[in-house]
Amino acid sequence: MEQYFLGYASLEQQRWMVADKVRTDAFAKAIFEVVHPGDLVIDVGAGTGILSMLAAKAGAKRVIGIERSDMAVLAKELVKKNNLQNQVEIFHGDASDLILDEKADVIISEWLGHMAYVERMFHSVIDVRDKHLKPGGIMLPSSVNVMLAPIDDGEYYKKEGPGFWEQDKIHGIDFSSFTKKEHEMGYSNLLHVPSKFLLCPGQTIHYQKMIDARPGDEWCMSSVDFTIERDGTLNGLVGWFSTELSHSTVLDTAPHLPRTHWAQTYFPYYPMKVKKGEVVHVDYQINESYEGSRLLEIILRIGRHEINFIVT
Question: Is there a catalytic annotation at residue 89?
Answer without folding.
Answer: no
